[in-house]
Design a protein that fits this description.
By secondary structure, the protein is an alpha/beta fold. Among the domains are: 3-88, Arginyl tRNA synthetase N-terminal domain (Gyrase A, domain 2), CATH 3.30.1360; 165-296; 469-643, Isoleucyl-tRNA Synthetase, Domain 1 (Orthogonal Bundle). It has 26 helices and 13 strands. The protein has a four-stranded antiparallel β-sheet with strand order 1-2-4-3, with helices on one face. A four-stranded parallel β-sheet has the order 6-5-10-11, sandwiched between helices. Strands 7-8-9 form a three-stranded antiparallel β-sheet. A hairpin with a 2-residue loop joins strand 7 (353-356) and strand 8. The mean pLDDT is 92. The structure holds one RNA strand.
RNA sequence: GCCCCCGUAGCUCAGCUGGAUAGAGCAACGGAUUUCUAAUCCGUGGGUCGCAGGUUCGAGUCCUGCCGGGGGUGCCA
C-alpha cells in the first residue's frame, strides 16, 4: 500500500492534458505537515499559478474540480494561498487496515527487483572489534533487510581486512611474546594481548621520538600567541583572526603533547612493556618487515597467518551471532590479493594510470591528488584492492548497485574510486558511499576510555544487556506490571532490550550526523528508544492474548474496522504509511526514516491504548475492530523492528 | 593552503524533493492510576534555526560571504 503515490497518481491524472510536465508538480503532494489540515496536502497551485498566469486559489479550484478521489477521500478543501488538503475516508482507512492485517507482507508491494551488493562491517581481522564497528554493521544490516523485504536481491559482503599491517604486528608479537600455554587454552585472548603489546610499544616509540618536536611546537605556538598579544596590529580584524589561529595552534599542540605523554606513560608505567620497548627497538619497522614477508609468501609467516585467521574469525563471528547478523560472502582483502597486479597492468595498458615519482598513479579530472595503485616499493594499496573488488564483483555478480557502508572520513577515497571505476568502463552500476558520522563519547570526542583505549564491542554489548536487566527486570516494576518471569525469561528479555537499545540508538540517528554513545541514556528505556517500541508491541500482544475473540491474519476479514475516536483514526493512518516509510528509508539509504516511523506508530498506539479500551469496549463489534487495530499494529511493529535487526518479546 | 561535513529549545536529536504557527525525547513543573503491563497518557514553560546578505509568492531547507566546530588532504586503511 503506497498511499502517497496513489494520491499522487490521482493528481497526475487531474493535471494531464492541461499542464506541461505534470510529474514535477505531483512531487509536491505530501503527508500533511499538521494533522489539522488533513492527511495529505498538495502544494501545487502556487508554482502552477506562475506558469498558467492565474491566481493560485483559482488554480487550486480548477485542480480540485478535475481531481477524482471520491473513493479515497472526503471532498478536497483549499486553504491559505492555495494549499489543497485531503482527508481519507474512514471506511477506506478501515478497509486498508484489514488488508494489512490479513496480509503476511502487511500490504507492502513487491518492487521491480534490483541486484545490490552491500559492503559493510569489514572489521580488521586480528584486531578486537570496537564501538567504531557498530555503525557500519548495524546500518548495513538494516539496509540489507529492508531492501530484501521490498523484493530486491541483496548480496551482503563482509570485506574483511585480513591482509593488512596488523598481521605483521601479531606475527612479530607471536614470535617474541607468546605465552604458549595461554595460546593453547585461550587463543583469542592471547592474540589480543600480543596485539596490544605491539601496538602500545609502537605508539610509545613513535611518541618518544615525536616528544621533543611536540614540545618545541607548543613553545613556538605559545610564543607566537604572546607576540600577538604584545604587538597590536594596525588592522584590528586581522589581529583578531591571527590571535584566534594562534590560540587554536596552542590548543592543538597541547592536546597532541598530552596524547603523546599518555602513550609514553602507558608503557613506562608497566614494567613488562617497558622492558619490551627497550629490547625491541624500532618495533614498527620490524612488524612491517613481517607484513612484507607475509605478502611475499614467506612460508613461516603464511603458516602463522593461516593459523591466526580462523581464531580471529571465530571471535568476530561470535559478535555477529549475538547481533543476529549474517553475510553471504566474506571475501576479505586476501581474496583479491592475487588480482592486484592484473588491475594495475590493465590500468596502465588503457592509459588510465602512469608512473609518477616511482609510484603508479591514476590521475583523475577534478582531483588535485592522484589515486595511487602501486607504491614506489612495489606494494599495492587499498585503492588497488577496491578496484579489484569492483572488477571481480561486476564479473561475477553483475549487480545494479554497490553500496559501501563506510565512515565519512573516507568520502574522498570513494569519490576517486568511483571516478576510476567509471573510467574503467563501469558506468551502468550505481556506486554509492553510504557514509556515516562518528560515534562520540560523553565529552563529544570520539568514543574512547579515559586512558585513550577503545572499548571492546563485546564489553559494550554486555554492558547494555546488564543495564537493561536492571531496568526491565526490576522486581518492583515486574510486580506492578503483574509479570512473573523465570530467570531464563528475564535474561532473554534483557538481551533483546539491551541489544535493541544499542542498535536503535544508532539507527534512529540520521546516519550522516555524529552521535553521542551513552549507554546509560539509550538503556534508560524512556522516550525514543527501542524499549518503548518493544513495550508497545508487548502491550498489544497482551491484549490479543487476553481477548476472548482470537484475531489473526486468517480471520480479520470478519471483523470490520470502525474508526470513531481520533486516536483510532490516527493509528490507522499511520499503519497505512508503512510502505511509504520503507520506500523512503531506502531511497537515499537512511534507516533512520524507518526508525522514526516505528516510533511514531508506537506513540500512536500508546495514545490509542490510553484512550480506547479494547477489552472493555462498548460493544462486541467495536471490541473486535480494536483487536484488529492491535493485531495490525503488532505485526507492523515487529516486522519493522525486524527490518532494523531488532527483536521483540511477548511480555516485558 | 585546498576539499568535505556540521552549527535548530538547558541537554540529546528529527525536520524527505523549499510550503501554512519550526518538532520529538530527556531534564523542570502541573495533572491523570480500583492499569486491557503507568517503561504510559494529557498539559505548561523553554527557539534571533551560528551571523549577514541574496534568490523566491514562500527559506531551517537553495546561493554567496563571514564566524565557530569536526574531518580529509600522493605512496596507512
Amino acid at each position: 500500500m503506497q498511499i502517497l503515490s496513489l494520491i499522487q497518481d490521482r493528481f497526475l491524472q487531474a493535471l494531464e492534458g492541461w499542464v506541461e510536465d505534470p510529474a514535477q508538480y505531483v512531487e509536491q503532494v505530501a503527508v500533511a505537515r499538521d494533522a489539522r489540515f488533513g492527511d495529505y496536502q498538495a502544494n501545487i497551485a502556487m508554482p502552477l499559478a506562475k506558469t498558467l498566469g492565474a491566481k493560485p486559489r483559482e488554480i487550486a479550484e480548477q485542480i480540485v474540480e478535475r481531481l477524482q478521489v471520491e473513493d479515497l477521500c472526503e471532498p478536497a478543501t483549499i486553504a491559505g494561498p492555495g494549499f489543497i488538503n485531503l482527508k481519507l475516508k474512514l471506511n477506506y482507512l478501515g478497509e486498508q487496515v484489514t488488508h494489512i492485517a490479513a496480509d503476511s507482507r502487511l500490504s507492502v508491494g513487491q518492487v521491480t527487483p534490483r541486484k545490490y551488493i552491500i559492503d559493510y562491517s569489514s572489521p580488521n581481522v586480528a584486531k578486537p572489534m570496537h564501538v567504531g564497528h557498530i555503525r557500519t554493521t548495524v546500518i548495513g544490516d538494516a539496509l540489507v533487510r529492508i531492501l530484501r523485504f521490498l523484493g530486491h536481491q541483496v548480496i551482503a559482503d563482509n570485506h574483511l581486512g585480513d591482509w593488512g599491517t596488523q598481521f605483521g604486528m601479531i606475527i612479530y608479537g607471536y614470535k617474541h611474546f607468546v605465552d604458549p600455554a595461554a595460546f593453547e587454552t585461550q587463543p583469542v585472548a592471547e592474540l589480543g594481548r600480543i596485539y596490544r603489546i605491539v601496538q602500545s610499544v609502537i605508539a610509545y616509540q613513535a611518541a618518544v621520538l615525536k616528544l621533543p618536536q611536540a614540545e618545541q611546537k607548543l613553545a613556538l605556538a605559545r610564543q607566537r600567541r604572546q607576540q600577538l598579544d604584545a604587538e597590536p596590529n594596525a588592522d584590528a580584524k586581522q589581529q583578531k583572526k591571527e590571535l584566534k589561529a594562534a590560540e587554536r595552534s596552542v590548543k592543538a599542540a597541547e592536546e597532541e603533547l598530552e596524547g603523546l605523554r599518555q602513550k609514553v606513560e602507558a608503557v613506562q608505567g608497566d614494567s613488562e612493556l617497558r622492558s619490551i620497548a627497550q629490547d625491541h627497538e624500532n618495533i614498527e619497522q620490524k612488524a612491517q618487515l613481517e607484513t612484507a614477508k607475509l605478502h611475499e609468501g614467506h612460508a613461516e609467516n603464511l603458516e602463522l597467518w593461516k593459523k591466526f585467521m580462523p581464531i580471529s574469525i571465530t571471535e568476530i563471528e561470535s559478535v555477529y551471532d549475538r547481533l543476529g547478523i549474517r553475510f553471504d560472502y566474506t571475501y576479505g582483502e586476501s581474496f583479491y590479493q592475487p588480482m592486484l597486479g592484473g588491475v594495475v597492468e590493465r590500468l596502465i595498458e588503457r592509459g588510465l594510470a602512469e608512473e609518477n615519482e616511482g609510484a603508479i598513479c591514476v590521475f583523475l579530472p577534478g582531483f588535485d591528488t592522484p589515486m595511487i595503485v602501486r607504491k614506489r616499493d612495489g606494494a599495492f594499496l587499498y585503492a588497488t584492492t577496491d578496484l579489484a573488488t569492483i572488477e571481480y564483483r561486476m564479473e561475477k555478480f553483475s549487480p545494479d548497485a554497490m553500496l559501501y557502508v563506510v565512515d565519512h572520513r573516507q568520502s574522498e577515497h570513494f569519490e576517486k574510486l568511483f571516478a576510476a571505476a567509471r573510467a574503467m568502463g563501469y558506468r551502468d552500476v550505481e556506486l554509492k558511499h553510504i557514509s556515516f558520522g562518528t560515534v562520540l563519547g560523553a565529552d563529544g570526542k570520539p568514543f574512547k576510555t579515559r586512558s585513550g583505549n577503545v572499548l571492546g564491542l563485546d564489553y559494550l554489548l554486555d554492558e547494555a544487556v546488564e543495564r537493561a536487566y536492571e531496568v526491565v527486570c526490576d522486581p518492583a516494576r515486574l510486580q506492578k506490571a503483574g509479570l512473573e518471569l523465570s530467570e531464563e525469561e528475564k535474561r532473554h528479555v534483557a538481551n533483546v532490550v539491551g541489544l535493541g537499545a544499542i542498535k536503535y540508538a544508532d539507527l534512529s540517528h540520521n546516519r550522516t550526523s555524529d552521535y553521542k554513545f551513552d549507554i546509560a541514556e539509550m538503556v534508560q528505556l524512556e522516550g525514543d528508544t527501542a524499549a518503548y517500541i518493544q513495550y508497545m508491541y508487548a502491550r498489544a500482544s497482551s491484549i490479543l492474548r487476553k481477548a476472548e475473540t482470537e484475531v489473526n491474519a486468517a480471520n480479520v476479514e470478519r471483523f470490520p474496522v470502525m474508526l470513531q475516536e481520533d486516536a483510532e483514526r490516527a493509528l490507522a493512518l499511520q499503519l497505512l504509511q508503512f510502505e511509504d516509510a520503507l520506500r523512503q528509508s531506502v531511497s537515499e539509504y537512511y534507516p533512520s526514516v524507518l526508525a522514526a516511523y516505528l516510533y511514531s506508530l508506537a506513540r500512536m498506539f500508546a495514545v490509542f491504548f490510553d484512550q480506547c479500551s479494547v477489552l472493555k469496549a462498548d460493544s462486541t463489534p467495536l471490541q473486535q475492530s480494536r483487536l484488529v487495530l492491535c493485531y495490525a499494529t503488532r505485526q507492523v511493529l515487529s516486522t519493522g523492528l525486524e527490518l532494523l535487526g531488532i527483536d521483540v518479546v511477548e511480555r516485558m
